[in-house]
């Protein structure tokens, strides 16, 4: 029996149609739009001006505080504008617009990075490199990695968990990365173990990626401290708390962090970015993005420069097919529909999903029939039906005491609801109000 | 037979007497003194229980009025100055005098001038829509059109105009309780002073974007051309970024700004029709 988390969860159709497609490199776009708020926390501060020439990997916006991150230029070129552009949040946000210099060769020649297993840096240097390279959690939450790794002296972290679960249907970016960069990921794990003085690391992978499990098990043979754990396929196993419960059977306390139970969790994409930053001094300027959808001509995985407009990617796979209803940033469960295709790829974009009318449309909301399916599937043990009602009717204090803030917004409740009730929409709304109230209280 | 009637009568009466004594003692022991003024004040208040004063209902507001020393910062927007004067006469405390206000909608982005560029499929609620993204149109400042303001209006002073997709405020019914102001996630509804004939001039736009972007999103957007600022004889118009705002305290309702506005984003209400305005519309 494979391990998994015990409470709730669902198993939506996997639809991993791009899992056999090797990661291609997308042509360097003519213009990149780099938003300054690509991570959770304080937006970065722009340090370039109009008409400035920038090089690849040059810092163009520096960290605006502790929970913030540097942003580097993904291309060599000229800053043409500092403009407000609609990003994946659906609102206009400050962006740095850079026109790619077509004559600059560094834009078109990808540097080779031979595998470097030797870890020469000490702890402080490694952490400094991670901070400087603008690395954030690439699983989607985009939490600045250096904050996660900045352990207090009294920490009791004894295990590093590497999140290769990729429980979202359709997405295969992490899957491909694990297949193609297994050795690098192992070195990345070793770097972190070295920096944090941890002697145990577990890579959690769902059992629908048997090839990745095999490849990583083989690569991990070099280091006896690293284990690979095959997990039962269940959504939302990629959530930090669920993954810790599944692998180590430890429960993160309510409102607590993985650190409280001696664990740090990082996504495989983040680990690869850390490897690149520490071993090759390469900041985070590109990431793997799955472009997928049943009707697309040639769905695939791509290495994409941060700031590339989504339309470039969609064109690369054959354009928007007829009858398309939504283009989603992320997976079908937690992703968010984009307003238009000019939205740039950011550090948190793991996939672009093109879905058609019949897959995307919401069905008519009917009254709650008290079937309690939402309660059964909630991985956090909440009562989504109650939380939705409380949010809808404005009982925010009660919603707070019913632990609305522990909701991880996985959307399992909305997925199973036979009455098609917009549970997550209201819970998210309730969360936003409860958060405001809590901030006002403090 | 006769005795049983006597016994039962006696028993029941004695139980009644004992209970009465207990109730009397309890009511003495746990007597709660309530200032009779509170009830009198409550009778004066409009009993709308709208919460516009900041208290959760008229009773709570009456308590607050009676128990607070200085009530000059308390005001019942629904009752207005009349009610507050009566309260002042009863309590002998100074009350503030406020000009009557009315809610106005600072957005004219109806369906035909502000095209929809996307569709929101979630729950029909402005609050949720604004949480998700900038709205169905390209203007991320304007009305979302799901009618959260209409839902909270207790006085039937608002309805959704199906044609324009915008809420309409029925000025006569508006009690300035500000429930709609609080409900609107975009802060489109503003309280403006209400004069005798209900004449108002205000900028019907909140779009802070630069001219090109604003105009592309909505044909009646304020583009920040500053013509109104230049022509205003009283300096009532201020420009923040590329958005004009008319200060109602300074504005003398001369209507000069309305005429010069190239995008018709300044709204005038209840003025007698001017010839100029008619020809301008005819041209368009």
Entry keywords:
heterodimer; A: 442 residues; alpha/beta; Rossmann fold; six-stranded mixed beta sheet; 29% helix; B: 284 residues; 3-methyladenine DNA Glycosylase II, Chain A, domain 3; Alpha-Beta Plaits; 2 domains; two-stranded antiparallel ribbon; two-stranded antiparallel sheet; 36% helix
Task: State the gist of this model.
The complex is a heterodimer of chains A (about 450) and B (about 280). Chain A has about 450 residues and is of the alpha/beta class.
Which helices and strands appear, and what pairs or packs with what?
The complex is a heterodimer of chains A (442) and B (284).
Chain A: E1 23-25, E2 31-35, E3 45-46, E4 53-54, E5 59-62, E6 71-72, E7 77-86, E8 92-100, H1 123-132, H2 145-149, E9 159-163, H3 173-180, H4 182-196, E10 201-206, H5 210-219, E11 226-231, H6 240-248, E12 263-267, H7 268-280, E13 286-292, E14 300-305, H8 310-316, E15 324-329, E16 336-337, E17 351-356, H9 357-360, H10 373-377, H11 384-393, H12 396-401, H13 412-416, H14 423-441
Parallel strand pairs in A: 1-14, 9-10, 9-12, 10-11, 13-17
Antiparallel strand pairs in A: 2-8, 3-5, 4-7, 5-6, 7-8, 13-14, 15-16, 15-17
Helix pairs in contact in A: 1-4, 3-5, 4-7, 11-14
Chain B: H1 2-29, H2 36-44, H3 58-67, H4 80-91, E1 101-105, H5 126-132, H6 148-152, E2 158-161, E3 166-169, H7 179-183, E4 189-193, E5 200-203, H8 211-217, H9 227-231, E6 237-240, E7 243-246, H10 256-260, E8 266-269, H11 275-283
Antiparallel strand pairs in B: 1-4, 2-3, 5-8, 6-7
Helix pairs in contact in B: 2-3, 2-4
Task: Describe this entry's structure for a reader.
- The complex is a heterodimer of chains A (442) and B (284).
- By secondary structure, chain A is an alpha/beta fold.
- Among the domains of chain A are: 123-280, NADH-ubiquinone oxidoreductase 51kDa subunit (Rossmann fold, 3-Layer(aba) Sandwich), CATH 3.40.50.11540; 373-441, no CATH class.
- Chain A is 29% helix and 19% strand.
- Chain A contains 14 helices and 17 strands.
- Chain B has 284 residues and is of the alpha+beta class.
- Chain B contains 11 helices and 8 strands.
- In chain B, the strands form 4 sheets. In chain B, strands 1-4 form a two-stranded antiparallel ribbon. In chain B, strands 2-3 form a two-stranded antiparallel sheet. In chain B, strands 5-8 form a two-stranded antiparallel sheet.
- The radius of gyration of chain B is 28 Å and the shape is elongated.
- The chains are: A alpha/beta (442), B alpha+beta (284).
